[in-house]
Amino acid sequence: MSKVLLTGGTGFIGSHTAVKLLEQGHEAVLADNLSNSSRDVVDRIEQITGKRPVFYEIDVADRQALADLFRKESPDAVIHFAGYKAVGESVAKPLMYYRNNLDTTLTLLETMAQFDCRRIIFSSSSTVYGASQPPFNEDSPTGGCSNPYGWTKFMIEKILEGAAHADERLSVVLLRYFNPVGAHASGLIGEKPGGIPNNLMPFITQVAAGKRDHLNVFGNDYETPDGTGVRDYIHVVDLAKGHVAALNYAESHTGTEVFNLGTGKGTSVLEMIHAFERANGLTIPYVIAPRRPGDLAFSFAETRKAEAVLHWKAEKNIEDMCRDAWRFEKGLL
């Protein structure tokens, strides 16, 4: 079993991955500056698993703080989630995204080298495929990203590939995932964005909870079946299992490997709204708003490589995602 450092470990995906790691006998060390999460997530992970992860409230770009963590904990591997992640915000504040996301990764890699930690799983994104035509497979062209957030993921992939090329002992796994939604079945952890949500599902659940009057659907004139954007939504618990599978893979492989984590199925915004209504017996009022800068019409995955190599496949469906997301939101009321 491994001791794993999760940067951004109290965030949406990091917290669910910590649960899966602990359930499978690994140790979890969480590092997070709490810019988009809260300290009580550590308590909730302990409630779910009966095990308390070690937690450091640090900025991973802080070289001294990160070195102190490595000196105390000596992690065997890192799963790197830390970074800003809102597409629209990245268009408005590109320099903030480049500075934060790249600095965090560079500091992390240098610190890993200093303390002889040689395995890293990176939280990448389907946005690296840019204007390629879906379904995306791991060999689809990358680059041509439509927003600075996507470019930071693309650049970090290149940084990691270069690091692995220069150090043959390094194992890098790039996980390009699609649209994580849902929550843990306990309702104890889920997606809890600060301020106005940037993603569809927490906006839907906040409307359902009466926190917002209506949902804005950004664009209904895309060349899709109903005019709204189509995405590959994946349950966050399935996604967390994919990270554990990637960690196991990295134990016996070096170099760089890339895997898509998705379902291989596209769901439109309107289809997701109606699935939520059916799953939970609610009505979600919505209005059509202008397209957001940086959004694409279609994005969905080809997932055969992850199935064949990692022996991983998404198991939960859209209704599971909607029910679990609503259960978590109700727990916040």
Q: pLDDT below 50 for ≥5 consecutive residues: which ranges?
A: none
- Cross-sheet strand order for the largest sheet: 3-2-1-4-5-6-11
Q: What would you give as the CATH superfamily of the domain at 3-181 and 234-262? A: NAD(P)-binding Rossmann-like Domain
Helix content: 40-55%
Q: At CATH's second level, what is the architecture of the domain at 3-181 and 234-262?
A: 3-Layer(aba) Sandwich
Number of helices: 11
Say how many strands there are.
14
Described by the principal axes of the CA atoms, the overall outline is globular
Radius of gyration (Å): 19 Å
Strand percentage lies at 15-25%
**CATH class group of the domain at 3-181 and 234-262:** Alpha Beta
CATH topology assignment of the domain at 3-181 and 234-262: Rossmann fold
Order of helices and strands: EHEHEHEHHEHEEHEEEHEEHEEHH
**Assembly annotation:** single chain
List the defining traits of the structure above.
333 residues, single chain, Rossmann fold, globular, 7-stranded parallel beta sheet, alpha/beta, 3-stranded mixed beta sheet
SSE order and pairing:
Elements: E1 3-7, H1 12-23, E2 27-31, H2 40-49, E3 54-56, H3 63-73, E4 77-80, H4 87-92, H5 94-114, E5 119-125, H6 148-166, E6 171-177, E7 179-181, H7 200-208, E8 215-218, E9 230-231, E10 233-235, H8 236-250, E11 255-261, E12 267-268, H9 269-280, E13 286-289, E14 298-299, H10 304-310, H11 318-331
Parallel strand pairs: 1-2, 1-4, 2-3, 4-5, 5-6, 6-11, 7-10, 8-13, 9-14
Antiparallel strand pairs: 9-12
